[in-house]
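Technical note accompanying the year-one report. For the benefit of new consortium partners, we illustrate the data format agreed upon in the data management plan: each record pairs a sequence with a structure-token string. No post-processing was applied to the example shown here.
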Amino acid sequence: MLRIPLHIERILLVNDCVIIPDFGGFILRRHAAVHKTRECAFLPARKEIVFNPTLTHNDGLLAESYMEMYGMDFNEAQQAIRHDVSALQATLADDGRLTLEGIGAFRRTDDGTLLFDPASDATSTYA
């Protein structure tokens, strides 16, 4: 079972960013409310999950979440995170695709670029 998606969701409920060390960062991008006069429609403000692969520096939020949930000390949490990140990377390498439930899916293009598609229900979670 992948533990990281649960922690990403927990952290994003109270922070606008969570960094997965040696993998990348998930950021909540805000979109303002929009009034479409022509269609007589109003779209409420929302937040969208985006992924930035250059955000890899460990900010400690993920370790803190592991420590709280599993009763680990900092070193144990760091070790568990490294193990979980290795599992994510192995799945991505083996399958060329990785789905994080409630967050989104990753896929590699032919040239090796990592693409992220947010889950359709993720936006409503963080509105």
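Partners are asked to follow this layout when depositing records. The first strand starts at residue 17 and ends at 20.
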